[in-house]
Amino acid sequence: MSVTSRPFTQTELLIELEPVVAGELDRHLATAKEWFPHEYVPWSDGRTFDGILGGEAWSPEDTSIPEVARVSLVVNLLTEDNLPSYHHEIATTFGRDGAWGTWVHRWTAEEGRHGIAIRDYLTVSRAVDPVALERARMTHMETGFATEHEGMLRQLAYVSFQELATRIAHRNTGKVSGDPHCERLLSRIAADENLHMLFYRNLLAAALELDPSQTMRAVTDVVTSFQMPGHGIEGFARKSVAIAMAGIYDIRQHRDEVLMPVLRQWKLFDIEGLDADGERAREELAAFLAQLDSAAARFEERRDARRARAAAAGTSL
In the chain, how many domains are there? Predict the structure, then answer.
């Protein structure tokens, strides 16, 4: 890799980082384990639904999985369902040739397993209403997904955080489900998400070496405006509050378990030689993280108070 005294253009960054992409792709392929969605689904638990085959209609009594876990499972699945839009976004930015293109297609193939496996599990286990789920899928996919972060650096920064956030959301959903099949499946999916995070995180680390100031700005812009890719799901705000109240994914986890570990890995607050905008971006980032810490503390206080009231009344959240 070479370093210039001026900001790199996107085309230059794609060219300079291609050897890093190739190396990270080789590492990923050597590390990733082959797995098969059908092996994680308890098929013998399934039975025919109503409709053209004349089976049994879905009923809430069909499942013992807690409601908040089902809400989270649906949010996670609908997020995975938008894969065609995600593929379009990264293929448009990274290209479909060379190491970049090989990674784009490999990533898409691996992500495709997640939606397949979760939907099969939900259908066979009767955890959710399949009619409502299909209608939600149609509504969400008709909306599609378009990145709010222009340029390769911002997209790399976004997916570095988003893949880790998704890993945590999957793992914690499995834990609160109370179903060992669900937990095993989501742990397997979370392992994929972690490898994807490592790929993107390492790639952005290389970009920091090439163009630290421009990359610092990109990271700050992403952190201060971050939203999960499923934010366009109908009723997402209400669903995300329920998920946060259950401790599946909340503002504290976002700051302490997603943002901070990645930022520390990049050593962003130790980088020297930033230009004026790079320094401003770092200051903005530090201020935002402090604000997020305070917001997380306030949320935790409200949640603890609400849990105490619920316990006193003998009810659940």
Answer: 1
The DSSP secondary-structure symbol of 224 reads T
Q: Is residue 4 assigned to a domain?
A: no
Q: Residue 284 maps to which CATH number?
A: 1.10.620.20
Q: Is 235 left (phi over 0), alpha (psi -120 to 50) or beta?
A: left
DSSP code, position 49: B
Q: Residue 21 pLDDT more than 70? A: yes
Tell me the Ramachandran region of residue 245: left when phi exceeds 0, alpha when psi lies from -120 to 50, beta otherwise.
alpha
Helix (H, G, I), strand (E, B) or coil at 10: helix
Instruction: Judge whether 75 lies within some domain.
Output: yes
Measure the CA–CA gap between 209 and 215, rounded to whole angstroms.
9
Return d(Cα 88, Cα 90) in angstroms, integer. 6
Under a CB-based contact definition with an 8 Å cutoff, are residues 41 and 186 in contact? no
For the chain, the average pLDDT equals: 94
How are the residues of the chain apportioned to helix, strand and coil, as percentages rounded to the nearest 5? 75, 0, 25
The two structure tokens encoding residue 96: 């479909």
Best CA proximity match to 303, nearest among 292, 311, 293? 311
Q: What is the pLDDT of residues 106-154, one digit of tens each?
A: 999 999 999 999 999 999 999 999 999 999 999 999 988 888 888 999 9
Q: Compute the CA torsion angle 184, 187, 191, 194 (nearest 10 deg).
A: 170
CA dist 247 and 300 (Å) reads: 10
- Judged by DSSP in three states, 119 sits in helix
Q: Is residue 60 part of a domain?
A: yes
Is residue 5 a part of any domain in this protein? no
Write the CA distances from 252 to 115, 234, 265, integer angstroms: 27, 24, 19
Domain span at residue 19 reads 10-313
